[in-house]
Amino acid sequence: MLFKTRNFDAAPVALSAEALTVNLPDTPGVPQVLKGIDVTIRQGETVCLVGESGSGKSVTSLAVMGLLPEALKVAGGKILLQGQNLLPLSQAQMRELRAARVAMIFQEPMTALNPVLRVGDQIMEVMELHTRLSAAERRRRAIDIMEQVHLPDVPRIFRSYPHQLSGGQRQRIMIAMALVLEPVLLIADEPTTALDVTTQKQILLLIDELQQKHGTAVLFITHDMGVVAEIADTVCVMKHGEIVEHGPVEQILRHPKADYTRKLLASVPSLAPRDPRAETQDIVLRVSKLNKIYGGGGIFRKLPQAHAAKDVSFSLTRGRTLGIVGESGSGKSTVARCIMRLIDPTSGRIELDGTDIATLSRGGLKPHRKRLQVVFQDPMRSLNPRWTIAQSLIEGPLNYGTPRREAMAEAARLMGVVGLPEDSLRRYPHQFSGGQRQRIAIARAVMMRPDVLVADEAVSALDVSVQAQVLELLDQLQRDLGIAIVFITHDLRVAAQICDEVIVMQRGEVVEHGPAGEVLAHPAHPYTRALIEAAPGRDWDFQNFRSMSESQDAHPA
Amino acid sequence: MIGYILRRILAVIPVMLLVAVFVFALLRLTPGDPAAIIAGDMATPAQLERIREAMGLNQPLHVQFVTWVGQLLRGDLGTSLISNTPVTSMIGARIGPTLSIAVLTILMSVALAVPMGVIAAWKHRSGADYTVMAFSVLGFSVPVFVIGYVFILIFSLKLGWFPVQGFTPISRGIGPFLYNAFLPALTLTTIYVALIARMTRANMLEVLGEDYIRTARAKGAPERTVLFRHALKNAAVPILTVIGTGFALLIGGVVVTETVFNIPGIGRLTVDAILARDYPVIQAMILLTSFLYVLVNLVIDLSYTFFDPRIRY
After folding, report:
1. What residues make up the domain containing B40?
2. What chain A residue is nearest to B207 in terms of C-alpha separation?
3. Spatial distance between the Cα atoms of A66 and B19, rounded to a whole number of angstroms
4. Are residues A154 and A234 part of one domain?
């Protein structure tokens, strides 16, 4: 069975939003944030709200919780929880209802828990606020729910602080906190987006399990079509504050009616690797036996060591893309930073066009810096907010002695190449969207005419449709300029679409290395297999609105 | 943790040694011969030489230094050139008023400033916020002697609630002590309230934007719980730093306030010693103040662990 096909027509309605309208009363001239949306969630049902950033999905959830930011106001409609309209309720009445009847879990388990309180106390606080249970009973129920979310060594974790737990464990704590009072409705706002795929899979299974056990209605907000395919009963596709299409999951994925839904599905990168490009012989970057060990210093005592990269070796030829794939803590970013010499490797060689740069001094490194450029994950923070785009773009070339006029001319040309108007040069980063900023960041890197471009999770913070465009841009630049790219990602779909070769890293070690098609289609290492199996919606070919097996029948290999 | 405390205490030794070298050098480098000051204007060269010999000033510098440090280690801070009394007993007589007023000031400041800062951050950009901020700017900008005299004018002369000046030690009872110490402490409090309230507000504003505050609200926590249980503890570390530094400054002596209210404290002792070039007293005061700073910093650093479990030594 590919999708959930449960029927909820007979189940009582847990929540329904009717013609819900939210606007920004103090900012005239901007469109409404929610334009009269209707959503119905029945008991035991999972409704997925999907859409790109700015579509209003989080606003919908916060409106239900009564936690809208001050600037936003509900302008019309109804929010009915088991038939009771929540909008006329007072603050105190809403407080009583939160966590008791409607609970919410958030995207970032790293920041959603209070860092200075023990997690056991944070779970018990929910009961302190809403029940008259005795301390012993609160404790018993907290431990019980912690066992239900399958936390290991519950007595220890009960006394732990959030920073002592992994991301997956923290999200389990959040779920435990949300479900301890058995609410009617659970709102999950991108609860697995910040987690590794294998952890994501476990959390999705957990939500599913607890939902069935307690009959909770779940409103699941996500931008990830893979996750939708895994867990949704019903899907609502949102765009600019409207629901453009809704229906059972299979209907939406197989027969999307709205153009926007089709476009959204078509931008989901396929797990099937693209055709490899021609091999070249000209090696620009060769890394051999690279090691990075953190810690071990300390004046009074020896600090514990962490071997972040162990004997990593690979080579990259001109015009090709090498993907470094792995989960958090696998050492992929450490390798990238060593190559860039943003950190110093403990041992090993990094040869850039034949010169070993691993041990060069700051001064000795300078002539080589321009040949290695980087694009970071977060375009919101990688451009100086007080500098115009022109200033950011020409800074590098000016440092290497290019005349200002020449640098400006090149910056203007590159704006065209990355698909932005030329007057963008006079503007500031905050005037651009995330995707546009990432294009600017790429233009900034290309200004230096590098041989190697390191892209560290460069598309991970972007919506899928924007992601597809940025990947397309990288591909085009590579074809035009012959740049070699080291592409670091945790996302196998993205890796499949851009990489010629892939290395898979786990705990600092390369566990598999080979052509992208080979590694993704026939993974040899159990860890690679586990990664691929955990990729949500891997049985569905989103772009062609059919299952993978149907696709294979259509195009027999 | 205990290892860390021991290491920090051991680290005090090189710091204090550096301060000692600095103080020693400072007095040897400044113009003016201590012997000449003691001897007075009418002394003959022979008298001067005798005094130098008695004070050990004609020995090589390193010998003088070792002798002086040896005295320090025995708890001997020397004898005042002016009053001829041991410096330790001079400081002992003056530290009580300074310390008791410092403690009272910090207690009053924290009790007022922390709630003010929390409310200002909670009601960000409201009348309450602007009032607190205006008070902060005012408390910080008006010179302390102006505040002191205005308070005397209002509370002592017009209302007659408090004496104009003077000091009664705590040992004579808490009531008489407060009767004298309240106005000077209140004067100092205006500055420290301004400082701590600002710091509290800034840090609370930052913390209130964090995800876990949203989580707390999503749990149905009332605002009081959100502010004081979830937010304040997270905002505590920088606030503590300001409070600690403020306390160290207060102990170092508050000359103006002590002068305005005629309190026999450390601040006036230091100023008098500087004006009279009473070197042993100046030396002792610099040493004592630096030692207090190091000590207060250690206490602040250790108190961080109480508020933030992520900080481990």
Report:
1. 2-87
2. A114
3. 59
4. no
